[in-house]
Design goal:
The chain has twelve helices and 13 strands. A seven-stranded parallel β-sheet has the order 3-2-1-4-5-6-11, with helices on both faces. A two-stranded parallel sheet has the order 7-10. The protein starts with a strand and ends in a 5-residue tail after the last helix. The mean pLDDT is 94.
Length: 331
């Protein structure tokens, strides 16, 4: 195992960098492909990762980097770029996945782990949703991740083990975006909640997700399966905000406002910024956080992968808060 070569796409991103560190700790030789060096390039290089800057849409580069690898973890994706053309999303999230699968078959990769998203299920109307719940992507990112899953499905039974993971809402140390906005608002002592705050939300601490990637890589009987991955329980937005307050040592006051005007403001913001080179500061995908229910069953991952989320919410939030403070993002 110590000499196995593993390819991680998206390996300088938040989730990918945590997975890369874990694999290096386990003794693997890790090759990273990412479109950006990110903030962790120097650190991962010092740890021994071989990093290449490029796109999974580049077939020749993908073929070259896959050669000699026994495992591919495919995390790279076009994400949160509101003004990016749909063709760019398709090229990375769908055709890039096909490029990797073709290269993996060609070079005899034994296990391919595809990172999808719980978002392919859209709004969960009958919680908790499991892997058989209706597929209902609500934006183009989620749609292309589902199309990526459909590509993956076509490669089953071709001599390579394939596992698909659908992570819930990932958070943890090292991510300056996803939960940072929530922490910053809570730290002020006042949180504006658009709607009643009873929308369900299912967090996933980064270490728990990396555990799932390791299990997906090694469990032979998981071949061809799809697994939702999340923490042990879901929460209402009201309870989540209060939990962040506990992590920060802040007594937060939640003020409820109507959701409709916020959604219209997000739509207007997207429209104004569409011809501009900048991303809009407010957009519908971001504000949908207040209205889209996320609540999932992880029974299949527990039963078949042996997955068990080790880090509970309060501990995960405390560790995340400590990182935000250590890097100067919070006082």
């Amino acid at each position: 195992m110590a000499q196995e070569r593993v390819l991680v796409t998206g390996g300088t991103g938040f989730t990918g960098s945590h997975l890369t560190r874990r694999l290096l700790e386990r003794g693997y030789r890790v090759v990273v492909l990412d479109a950006s060096p990110g903030r962790v390039y120097d650190e991962l290089t010092r740890l021994g990762a071989e990093i290449h800057i490029g796109s999974v849409a580049d077939r020749d580069l993908v073929r070259r980097l896959t050669e000699g690898c026994t495992v591919v973890h495919h995390l790279a994706a076009m994400f949160r770029q509101v003004n990016a053309p749909k063709a760019a999303y398709w090229a990375v999230n769908v055709e890039g996945t096909r490029n990797l699968l073709d290269a993996a078959i060609e070079h005899g990769v034994r296990r391919f782990v595809y990172c999808s998203t719980c978002g392919v299920h859209g709004n969960v109307e009958r919680p908790p949703a499991d892997e058989t719940a209706p597929i209902h992507p609500e934006d183009y990112y989620q749609y292309t991740k589902w199309e990526g899953e459909r590509v993956v499905e076509r490669y089953r039974g071709r001599g390579m083990g394939i596992v698909t993971l659908r992570p819930a809402a990932i958070y943890g140390p090292g991510d300056p975006e996803r939960f940072y906005h929530l922490f910053r608002m809570v730290q002020s002592g006042r949180f504006f909640m658009f709607g009643d705050g009873e929308t369900t939300y299912h967090p996933l601490f980064i270490d728990n997700l990396v555990d799932a990637f390791e299990l997906a890589q090694t469990r032979a009987h998981a071949d061809g399966e799809v697994y939702l991955v999340a923490d042990d329980r879901w929460w209402t937005l009201n309870d989540l905000v209060k939990a962040i307050g506990r992590a920060l040592g802040v007594k937060v006051r939640i003020r409820h406002l109507p959701f409709g005007p916020l959604w219209l403001a997000a739509l207007a913001c997207e429209t104004v910024y569409k011809p501009l080179p900048k991303e809009p500061p407010l957009f519908r995908r971001r504000v949908d956080w207040f209205r889209q229910n996320r609540a999932f069953s992880i029974a299949r991952a527990r039963r078949e992968l042996g997955y068990e989320p080790r880090v509970p919410l309060d501990e995960g939030l405390a560790r995340t808060a400590a990182w935000y403070r250590r890097v100067g993002l919070l006082n």
